[in-house]
From TrEMBL:
<keyword id="KW-0677">Repeat</keyword>
<dbReference type="Pfam" id="PF13516">
    <property type="entry name" value="LRR_6"/>
</dbReference>
<dbReference type="InterPro" id="IPR001611">
    <property type="entry name" value="Leu-rich_rpt"/>
</dbReference>
<protein>
    <submittedName>
        <fullName>Ribonuclease inhibitor-like</fullName>
    </submittedName>
</protein>
<dbReference type="InterPro" id="IPR051261">
    <property type="entry name" value="NLR"/>
</dbReference>
<dbReference type="InterPro" id="IPR032675">
    <property type="entry name" value="LRR_dom_sf"/>
</dbReference>
<keyword id="KW-0433">Leucine-rich repeat</keyword>
<dbReference type="Pfam" id="PF00560">
    <property type="entry name" value="LRR_1"/>
</dbReference>
Amino acid sequence: LAGWIITETDCEVVASALKSDPSHLRDLELSHIPLQDSGVERLISGLKSPNCRLEALRLRGCRLSEISCSALISALKSNIHLRDLDLSENALQDSDVELLRDLLESPDCRLETLSLRSCSLSEISCSALASALKSNIHLRDLDLRENALQDSGVELLRDLLESPDCRLETLRIRDDETIRAKIQKT
């Protein structure tokens, strides 16, 4: 569906597929579709369903508003199956990243891959992510490329990667810089 224009009715159809018993939809790609708040609201009803077994959600460049992003992240707290989340190319606010921190700190969160490439992240966002990664045992890959990260935020994340408390294995900061954990983690 990437690049298509979808209506609220289309979002309702996707939500119905997520709610079906059993839901066979495992991977949802809606990248570069300008989702309106009402469309996201309809998708959320499916994401919150106990029948939803979605493992990958890609909403790259969907022009998510602060309201949409907040509602989406809140809905994902109840989804224990999601492993891959791509919110790249959405102008996330610090408040959105704070909500992501809450999601990553949730004991039910099973995300293994999180892409926040080109999301206008700030130093506050780096601090929130670093805080979440101290307690998250599932996230293995974090993509933060194409964000104007300050050196202090980058250092905070690099230091965290070396901590035995952090399970992150790959941190992508710049196109030419990928940092992999250098120590064996138990």
